[in-house]
Amino acid sequence: MRPSPAGREGGRRRRAAGVMAESNADWMGSLPAALRTYPLSNLAIPGSHDSFSYWVDEKSPVGPDQATAIKRLARISLVKKIMKKWSVTQNLTFKEQLEGGIRYFDLRVSSKPGEIGQEIYFIHGLFGIKVWDGLKEINTFLEQHPKEVIFLDFNHFYAMDDSHHHFLINRIQSAFGSKLCSVECVEYVTLQYMWENKHQVLIFYHYPVYQEYSFLWPGNKMPAPWANTTNVHKLIQFLETTLEERSRYGTFHVSQAILTPRVRTIARHLIRGLKNTLVHRNLPMILNWVKAQKPGVMGVNIITSDFVELVDFAATVIALNDLLLEEDESATKS
């Protein structure tokens, strides 16, 4: 008996998840004592780009993040299948990403126009799962791994008025409760600080309503400059330049180690999709750039990637923290 498409997809995901060693599930809790008092803004932390896009709904309408022309075209079912190939940037679920060591999540959300109620969904061209379902999955992991800390970056909102925002924020509060870390001086936020206060979640919210809630960090505390290029050499130059320009104090910093397809890229490689056109070919060079980095005040902090399981991305980023220990040792000797 042949497995169903859903079964085959799940099997592929499980094999992919195996590449990301489950030993990374508790990597923050396992860091050497010396690093527990470093600001989280000075540690190297792996993240995923469009973190929720492992599943998108071909049957639902095209999202409000798309141009009108795309919405018209998408009435043809083949167009949605092609959109899926370019909308999906991850293979792993939240749970699988967390077990593999990912701690920063890039989130875009939307209401579903025409739907009764205020339910909010993840979105990237096509609608993903309900945000509430994703938050519950993340919280289950945190319950089982009390020393792990995550960053949820809500940075794009579509078809949402203030009532939708309040609905979503109440969902966030219901999911995480006292695990939410209130806004604080960035330099005070260390693993030690988080553990002492039994906090595990930092929420960044790129919309003015954040001012009404003590646990919503403003979006400008999590700058994530975007190269918007298909060229890996231009991407690496951009990552270098933006690192040189990062604020020494007062913010976290995201290095988006991702390539973005142009319209003509998609037109030339319609059926191949993002992974086969841009990601597979360029990941080794991107990973080499990551290996050459150092965390610290003017170094890398959060680094994001597409398809985080294709190479040993999370483990490579986590290992950069050892350089901080070497720095400490050499400072002690001198």
From TrEMBL:
The keyword Lipid metabolism applies. InterPro entries: PI-PLC_domain, PLC-like_Pdiesterase_TIM-brl, PLCXD1/2/3, PLipase_C_PInositol-sp_X_dom. Coiled coil: none annotated. One of its GO terms (biological process) is lipid catabolic process. The keyword Lipid metabolism applies. Keywords: Hydrolase, Lipid degradation, Lipid metabolism, Transducer. One of its GO terms (molecular function) is phosphoric diester hydrolase activity. Residues 37-206 form the Phosphatidylinositol-specific phospholipase C X domain. It comes from the Eukaryota. PANTHER family: PI-PLC X DOMAIN-CONTAINING PROTEIN 2, PTHR13593. This is Phosphatidylinositol specific phospholipase C X domain containing 2.
